[in-house]
Amino acid sequence: MRLQSSQNSLRAATLLAAALALAGCRSLPVDGTTPAPHAGAASSAAVPADDNLNAVLWVQRSVEYRALSESVFRAATERLDAALADRSWDALVAAERSAAGDASNLPPAVILDIDETVLDNSAYQARLVVDGQEFSDPAWDAWVEERKAIPVPGALDFTRAAAAKGITVFYISNRSAALTGATLDNLRSQGLPVQHGEVFLGLGLDVPGCEQAGSGKTCRRQLVGRTHRVLMQFGDQLGDFVQAGANTPAQHAALHADHRDWFGARWWVLPNPTYGSWESAAFDNARSLPRDSRRARKREALRTDR
Question: What single string gives the DSSP state of each residue in 102-145?
Answer without folding.
Answer: --TTSPEEEEE--BTTTEE-HHHHHHHHHHT----HHHHHHHHH
